[in-house]
DNA sequence: GCAAAAGTGTTAACTATACACCCATGG
DNA sequence: CCATGGGTGTATAGTTAACACTTTTGC
């Protein structure tokens, strides 16, 4: 298999860097965007929190590896997520004390996700973005990158569906946008504009909760990624 | 170095896939978008055209590897380009007859690029998008992906600067947009809108050419990537 | 009846779109 | 003087942004 590769630069048995996968999973907790972290059991950065990640074995696609690693380290299955996509590939040559590796990262969205103890038995827990500690590797920067991508994605797709239950109120929808964007939006303008995009449909159901007027429940027309006719915010 | 990696999945000496880099370089040729291809000298796909690519040696970042491979296979230096960014990372496990590899791809823009014969001595040549042949691997799809990214990029950044000379006419600017988008634009609306973005400044120079009124020359305020205040087209 | 969140409309400013003719030059 | 590409304005429709009060419920 290696007979077609130029050997002049690296005559070693493993001439290319190791491949890892890391995932940035977001969900809303109390109207705040939260990210899934695991506590490292081994050096480097033993005991510190980091993004759930692991090695990409030969024969696995990066997507397969991401699924396997997430399941093993957090108990979360990709099928539980509303959305996941490849984010970026980071070089770790200068930052990773282990040596030369490349990290293919994924960004995913879900709701009601509960990481569990697993065979590999690492601690795994969602942290609100405002409470993310200093992480191993340059994972803080990767989270910032993922958050920026998410903000952009919400402006030109219906990706927000993946953060919400299948039936939701317009206030919940607006709160999801506000949590991701980190700023408040005008209620009347938000509703007018979002309804004009024809992404959601009113249902006959009401959401009764608390000592106030019940709210109309809506649903998304598509629960797969759709591009908006005009961009939002 | 490997002592911290779980060995249970792959006990081989090279447990992760090989890493390759491939580049999609665009420039304008006769007001048409063209992409740089090289002719393969080795199997697989010997003799076919493909994106310039090669192995990512351990110790090189993917960016370094991309620079080295481009220089070696086409004679083009990344410093000659106006813009380059990572595009996407493709799994090749199912499509690559060589076995399991992962390809980190880059997308770049330039002007006046002339690939040359090099020590590695592969044919390298720009093909107008309409004349790209069937390529090895799934490189046709990668070009389509890069083209889509470029269309998006032109709508929210000033990336078009990288396709133009430092002094250019509004007609050249419009032609660049039209070449990338694949459709014509209204001249008056294009000029009005582009000027309102405050990305370019009129110079005192005129472009005299042909039997017609000379054209005013403009320049970009920044020759690095800038995000637009409102999106274009 | 009161506290809490749901729901609703109008106006003004801005942006996008459609569209046709005159200008300056070289040959 | 003619062929060629450069350069310009207006009117309409659509979109965005700012802004405050009434409704329905549980307690």
Label this structure with key terms:
DNA-binding; 4 helices; homodimer; 233 residues; alpha+beta; 7-stranded mixed β-sheet; 27% strand; disordered N terminus
Element layout with pairings:
2 copies of one chain form a homodimer.
Chain A: E1 18-29, E2 32-39, E3 49-50, E4 53-55, H1 62-74, E5 83-91, E6 101-109, E7 124-128, H2 139-156, E8 168-169, H3 170-181, H4 187-196, E9 200-207, E10 215-220
Parallel strand pairs in A: 1-6
Antiparallel strand pairs in A: 1-2, 1-4, 2-3, 2-7, 5-6, 8-10, 9-10
Chain A binds a DNA duplex (27 and 27 nucleotides) through helix 4.
Protein architecture, described:
The structure is a homodimer of 233-residue chains. By secondary structure, chain A is α+β, with helices and mostly antiparallel strands. Chain A contains 4 helices and 10 strands. The longest helix of chain A has 18 residues, at 139-156. The N and C termini of chain A lie far apart (50 Å). Mean pLDDT of chain A is 90; it is low at 1-14. At the A-B interface, strand 1 and strand 5 of A face strand 1 and strand 5 of B. Chain A binds a DNA duplex (27 and 27 nucleotides) through residues 169-171, 186-189, 191-193, 196, 208-216, 230.
Short description:
The structure is a homodimer of 233-residue chains. Chain A is of the alpha+beta class and 233 residues long.
Characterize the biggest β-sheet of chain A. 7 strands, mixed
CA radius of gyration of chain A is: 20 Å
Number of E-state strands of chain A: 10
Biggest chain contact: A-B, 40 and 40 residues
User: Helix count of chain A?
Assistant: 4
Shape of chain A: elongated
- The residue-averaged pLDDT of chain A reads 90
Q: What's the SSE pattern of chain A? A: EEEEHEEEHEHHEE
Distance between the termini of chain A: 50 Å
Multimerization status:
homodimer
> What share of residues are in beta strands of chain A?
25-35%
